[in-house]
Amino acid sequence: MGFIQVSLEDVIPLRHDVLRPGKPRSTCYFEGDEAPTTRHFAWEEDGQIVSVATVMRSENVMDGEVIPYQLRGMATSPRLAGKGIGSLFLQQLHREVDASWWCNARAVAIRFYERNGLVRVGDPFEISDIGIHYVMVYKKTAGSE
Known about the structure:
Blueprint: E1 2-6, H1 8-19, E2 39-45, E3 48-62, E4 65-76, H2 85-97, E5 101-106, H3 110-115, E6 119-127, E7 131-138
Parallel strand pairs: 4-5
Antiparallel strand pairs: 1-2, 2-3, 3-4, 5-7, 6-7
């Protein structure tokens, strides 16, 4: 039970169910998924993967600071929504990555990310066929987890 590193194929089913329902499974594979520096993570409960995320090297400059990593494809099983699993998972990701990172967060997930230490940057934008997103950043500071 808990936080584990997994393969790309382990994250695809939950990405598909939560982030791309009704779309072809092929839409669940992202550019950079197979890069040697990319890592896929999951939260496991009772032998089942219930939350997933991918961390890849993808630099973004914000306020003159290079943010080296991007979080992509974070998804938690809807049957566990509101149980704190996503937050436990994200807090463990903060410790595992041990660096600043950024993501494109869906508008519906903004409060979740803010509660877990991320800050919105810039204006909203639309990703075609998916919806409104915001860039959010988690800045690793001395003593932060």
